[in-house]
């Protein structure tokens, strides 16, 4: 799997976080679908993901932390 970057995940989460776009980007399709159904956990789940992306704690589907911005 190609190395994912923070900037695309950050932008996807910021603009389409309630639809789980950032989760689809990192390969987490199952939780991406759950975010669509729940509208990002009514925004709370998307907000938590947004914070995790900013602090560098967000991971891809293989559990690797996404650490590089570009």
Tally of discrete structural domains: 1
Oligomer: single chain
Q: Which sequence of SSEs, written as H and E, runs from N to C?
A: HHHH
Count of individual helical segments = 4
Q: What about the largest sheet?
A: none
Helix content: 55-70%
What Rg do the Cα atoms give? 11 Å
Strand content: under 5%
Plain-language structure description:
The chain is mainly alpha-helical. The chain is built from four helices and no strands. It has one domain (6-55). The protein has helices at 6-16, 21-25, 29-42, 44-55. α1 (6-16) runs antiparallel to α4 and α3 crosses α4. The longest helix is centred in the middle third of the chain and has 14 residues, at 29-42. The model has no long low-confidence stretch (mean pLDDT 92).
Q: What structural keywords apply?
A:
single chain, 70 residues, mainly alpha, 60% helix
């Amino acid at each position: 799997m190609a190395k994912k970057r923070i900037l695309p995940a950050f932008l996807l989460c910021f603009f389409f976080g309630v639809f789980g776009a950032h989760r689809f980007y990192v390969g987490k399709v199952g939780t991406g679908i759950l975010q669509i159904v729940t509208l990002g956990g009514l925004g709370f789940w998307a907000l938590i993901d947004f914070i995790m992306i900013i602090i560098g704690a967000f991971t891809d589907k293989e559990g690797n932390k996404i650490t590089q911005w570009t």
